[in-house]
Amino acid sequence: MEHALEVRAVSLRFGGVRALTDVSFSVKAGELFSIIGPNGAGKTSIVNCISGRYRPTEGQLFYHGRDITGMKPNARAQLGIGRTFQNLALFHHMSVLDNIMVGRHHLLKNNFLTGSLYWLTGARREELEHREKVEEIIDFLDLQSVRKATAGTLSYGLRKRVELARAMALEPKLILLDEPMAGMNFEEKEDMARYIVDLNEEYGMTVVMIEHDMGVVMDISHRVVVLDFGRKIADGDPADVLADPHVRRAYLGEEDELLVDPDDAPDHPSASEHAA
Ligand SMILES: Nc1ncnc2c1ncn2[C@@H]1O[C@H](COP(=O)(O)OP(=O)(O)OP(=O)(O)O)[C@@H](O)[C@H]1O
To answer: Which of 32, 73, 83, 200 would disulfide-bridge 176, Cβ 3.0–4.6 Å?
Structure first.
């Protein structure tokens, strides 16, 4: 499988704070890949480096073999890298439909200059195509009943779903999800997990997700990377990562968060066998 993303020896400093130190990992095209780690481990920092919000102090990033280290976020979005944010970034006064349409602006070929020639140019056809795509996403994420609602009036779980819809509207090949299930109740999490699996499987999107809910991460991820104090301490398939003694130690004191016992996960050695 081709690498969709390669993070090569990335370090990031904010003054004296070392948010990331020499982090390397790669994500294969079509993978559902998760980034985990205790609070302050550097998860959002690495996602911001991938999306272009932050520029690494050292190291390089490659997207399908192309060096994107110095590229602006917009240029990365045009290449097919989409994202959602930890804190919702919706236009609260706008409808669900319009919020999703905003997600397509990178794909608009016609602008206000050609807008005056609306009926003569391809602008009308283009708008219809965009509408169709938006309707497809609304169906996929079961947002029909709220499509005209003002985004700010929706429940938190629904707003997270609209944010996912807006990120999907860009038709990314790689989607970065920053805590897509944070603040959700059990049912909302189950729904969101299903949508994420479906967009990976049905749309073939490569998914890179930060998520704190270990049960969900271990359930749906193909591979996992673990950060601690800005350094990578493990990566591999979920069962191996759970059984890794470094990972278990990193979560000591947060043991309640490591909800899945490695002995319950299928087809892997126990922590003690692994350590032996
Ligand atoms: N803009 C910034 N300026 C200064 N320090 C920052 C900035 N962003 C992150 N940091 C620091 O970098 C480190 C890693 O933060 P980051 O937000 O990436 O961690 P995280 O794993 O996403 O944490 P959480 O799970 O709490 O969201 C922390 O020490 C944080 O305080």
So the answer is: 83
